[in-house]
Specification:
six-stranded parallel beta sheet, alpha/beta, single chain
């Protein structure tokens, strides 16, 4: 399956390495960028990485006409819609980096475009591929852990000012927001994937003196899940030097703590279980936002390729991405109005 990569931003090299190592017959065939010199240089380096020639494109029509079997769209959120429209019209299945767009309304529009064209779309929520997270979700589905009573979501990350000095980063015009839409969206998605949808929220969101940026670098929320469980969320890029994000579940049978890819279960009968990875894969929670393994993206790409071949839903369908975006939207409204907000459905 020939893959067209659209965009050459911060996560591009992660996708190149993931495509190099991915199975299911996927291969990077071309890259679409805006600047001819930069795109050519990127493709030359990518060709060395993957071990075969990678074509450079700066014209969208030529890139789509090259015959890709799927596309990976990694542009900033403000540049998504035009590419999404063209890909859907061309019938090219698309794996898209988060968030889908800057606002819930615009994200919903892109999802509707793909749905109307009957073209598969998936979102790169790579934390879902972590073994510990999948183990926890399976245990909950089988009822082994009982019912979820409370969910505690923590994202104590750090970004220095240089990160936000990049043009548009942390702005509403390019990114759609701050820590929630850009960083904590991954952990929030994972929590929703594990614990189910959120029905309503209360929230506070603010910009600290540690960063000069438009959107929030601190966010906190009270959550009410559709199941009746309660939850709290704390997310920031101010927590120097940055530590691993975590999700803690209080259930009727145990206390569960998921930190990165480490899972600990303290059962009410006194037994304890721990599942930890053989090596630390990083999380990108510190000053280097790319300090994490490309294996998670590799797994997402492999899953999407398999989903296309097997005609099944992908690991992270667009409906899930819209729900996590809807929760963030409700948080923004709640913080702005000082009210409890229902999560849009």
């Amino acid at each position: 399956m020939n893959v067209l990569l659209i965009g050459m931003g911060m996560v591009a090299q992660t996708h190149v390495c993931a495509l190099r190592d991915a199975g299911n017959g996927v291969r990077l065939s071309g890259v679409l960028g805006r600047d001819p010199d930069r795109t050519s240089a990127f493709c030359a380096a990518a060709s060395e990485t993957v071990g075969h020639p990678v074509s450079a494109f700066t014209d969208s029509a030529a890139a789509l006409a090259s015959g890709p079997d799927m596309a990976i769209l990694i542009t900033p959120p403000d540049a998504r819609a035009t590419f999404a429209d063209a890909l859907a019209q061309a019938g090219i299945p698309t794996l898209m980096e988060k968030p889908i767009e800057r606002t819930l309304e615009d994200a919903s529009g892109i999802v509707a475009t793909y749905a109307q064209a009957e073209v598969p779309l998936a979102i790169c929520f790579q934390h879902r591929t972590r073994a510990a997270a999948q183990d926890l979700r399976t245990r909950l589905a089988t009822g082994a852990l009982g019912e979820i009573v409370h969910v505690d979501i923590r994202v104590p990350w750090w970004r220095d000012q240089a990160y936000y000095d990049a043009p548009g980063r942390g702005s509403y015009a390019r990114d759609g927001g701050g820590v929630m839409i850009n960083q904590a969206i991954h952990t929030l998605d994972l929590a929703l994937w594990i614990a189910g949808p959120v029905a309503r929220v209360q929230a506070q969101m603010q910009t600290s003196p540690l960063h000069h940026m438009e959107a929030e670098d601190i966010a906190s929320a009270l959550l009410r899940f559709a199941s009746g469980a309660t939850g709290v969320l704390s997310a920031t890029t101010c927590a120097y030097p940055g530590t691993t994000e975590s999700i803690a579940l209080t259930t009727t049978r145990a206390q569960v703590h998921l930190s990165g890819d480490t899972l600990r279960i303290d059962w009410h009968d006194g037994a304890t279980e721990t599942r930890a990875p053989a090596a630390d894969a990083g999380t990108g929670g510190g000053a280097d936002p790319m300090a994490f393994t490309h294996a998670w993206h590799e797994a997402v790409i492999e899953d999407f390729a398999a989903a296309l071949r097997d005609d099944r839903p992908p690991l992270a369908p667009p409906s899930d991405a819209l729900h996590v975006h809807a929760v963030i939207h409700a948080m923004e409204q709640a913080a702005r109005r000082g009210t409890t907000e229902e999560v849009p459905t």
